[in-house]
Amino acid sequence: MRKLCFLLVLACTSLSVAADNTLDELRVRLDEHWHPVKVDKSRDIKTYAKREDGKPFRSFKIEQTIPTTMDTLSHILSDFDSYPRWFWETLETRLLKKVSSKELYVYMVHRAPLGIPNRDVILHVRVEPMTDKKNYAILHATAVSDYLPLKPPLVRMAAEEFVVRFTALNEQKVKLEIEGYIDPNGNVPVWATNYVQRSAPYVIAVGLQRMAKLDEFKNAKSMPSFTLVE
């Protein structure tokens, strides 16, 4: 009986989310321009969404400033075991192959909404580190669907791509500008994917800020799998 009540609550919540998302679409009809989704002045986080020709789902953008260092961010982003603690609905993350300190392949499993199979993805990650001549680093991540055999019942995502620009404003403050797009593949309601792309960027931004405060990353002694500083 308790399980049935729980499922009913989840179903009602999903319908509420779908209705809310539909209303948002009516309020602001997304086009090729970035439209604000969430503005959190206290955390200095802004998220945006837009639609692009030829893509069924919306793209997202995050702008945030974190009181941290490039070295701390390097340790957070390369500690793959910690991703379930802060990255949106992540069940598993592990390093598949390290080509170099600037290139690697990463495997991730994402939890899908109730009634929809979980998704997995292989990301090809490339890093352009900050140098003495430029105060920023760029990280590129692109899905490589055929890097590993399929793992049913998991559904391989068609796209999970993002570009992150890390700009060191000073020795203790970094600005992040992130643009990305996901395509979960398979039979997923458009509202569910749009809800994720609308909510996930803010959750990820807050999670990254939270991790940057932890001593295990601020005072890490080990070498990260990749570094944002050359």
TrEMBL record:
Protein name: START domain-containing protein
Keywords tagged on the record: Signal
InterPro entries hit by this protein: START-like_dom_sf
Gene source species: Agitococcus lubricus
Gene3D superfamilies: 3.30.530.20
Signal peptide residue numbers: 1-18
SUPFAM superfamilies: Bet v1-like
Domain of life: Bacteria
